[in-house]
Design goal:
The protein contains no helices and 10 strands. The chain is mainly beta. The protein has a 6-stranded mixed beta sheet with strand order 2-10-9-4-5-6, with no helix packed on it. A hairpin with a 6-residue loop joins strand 4 and strand 5.
Length: 113
């Protein structure tokens, strides 16, 4: 069974940065799309960013220009570099294998104003 493990969340002040990591228990070189989603308290889970093999990436409008998604197929890792963080970025962040219901356990990000 494939497992995804997120890490790197924490408490940061507005304007700060965090780097989230997602470790996969499988060879992600054969996975076309890896994605990040987030879920804020009381809200539905929403798309944040995705990256395809070949490094084409897509972002939610709310994070464009502030977040950067990357992948290291050799290490089976996916990253989300978050900069210029805002209080509205506060959420649990989840790694996902695109097109599946395979999720990690999430990592909490809290941005204080």
């Amino acid at each position: 069974q494939v497992q995804l493990v997120e890490s790197g969340g924490g408490l940061v002040q507005a304007g700060g940065s965090l780097r989230l990591s997602c470790a996969a228990s499988t060879d992600i070189a054969i996975i076309t799309v890896m994605a990040w989603f987030r879920q804020a308290p009381g809200k539905q889970r929403e798309f944040v960013a995705s990256i395809r093999n070949g490094d084409r990436s897509d972002y939610a409008d709310s994070v464009k220009g502030r977040f950067t998604v990357s992948r290291d197929n050799a290490q089976n890792m996916v990253y989300l570099q978050m900069s210029s963080l805002k209080p509205e970025d506060t959420a649990d962040y989840y790694c996902n294998i695109g097109g599946t219901q395979i999720w990690g356990q999430g990592t909490q990000v809290t941005v204080s104003s």
